[in-house]
Amino acid sequence: MKKILVASSALVAIAFAGQAQASEPIKLSVGGYMEQWAGFADEDNTATGGRKNAFQSDTEVHFKGSTTLDNGIEVGAVIELEGETSGDQVDEQYLYINGGFGRIEMGKNDSAADAMGITAPAVGPVGVNDGDMDQWTNAYLIDTVRSSGDQNRATYYTPVMGGFRAGVSFADDSNRNGASSYNNTDGSGDNIISAGLEFNHDFGGVTLGLSAVGENQGEGNWYGFGSNVGFGNFTVGGSYGHTEDDYGLSDRETKNQDLDAFDLGVSYAMDAASVSLTYGYEDFGTGDISAVDLGLRYALGAGVSWRSSVFWFDQENDTAVDNDGYGVVTGLRLDF
Question: Residue span of the signal peptide, if any (predicted)?
């Protein structure tokens, strides 16, 4: 029996190798984006005082490549490098396998819940939901889809069936990119189980997107729901997220507190221009924050867009100084 198993394994390996040699070798293409922003902000937090800075930048270089085996299965790789960072130089790196069975991803990547979560439409560079408002002010960052970051994980997505698709992820405890305990072997983090369900369909000119996502880390969970509806040039939508007080305590900004957040927004697209108005709110246990963002995006050419945001926020704190303020940000994004 043992000889039969060894011989069978060898035949399978030879067959797979033959298919791989017959397919085209993987050649990586270069892509990514560059964002350069200029702006100002004014806030009333006397403990920190005034704006943080006048300029922001974010750049990533992406290497992607794939090949299709003789059996029709696509195998590919994605490597994303940070243009400027004080932590990990590699943002994400993973391989994927696509076929009639769905999609499998393995490596350091976002969870299924993070990838499938729908939030309110927003076209500006700042936004109110997991955006960059905390990069310009000392505002608490509203988040309805609370990401566990790039972890060593395996993810499976089902094929799309009638507009529905499901996904599930598992990450071990080796911790996220840039964590002090990360050593690619073991760490101090928690195993993370993530899942999502989405529905996307076009009903004769009216598009509908729905998502239900959630994640378990440590002794607690977070979960959220989102929806976008598109008709004509308009898109309206929103999302809600709840985080339990014992979810991922080692990674939480506010520990031992339940978090409840939501956002609502509308966008309008006309030729090369898009505009959006988005409102966000979060109760983070020791206070709450409301924020509004008016965003503008204008396509100047292929891969070049001018984007701007005018934003305002009001944060009430139970145990610290209250803060409110506003800001204006503008700049260019290049996609290549």
Answer: 1-22
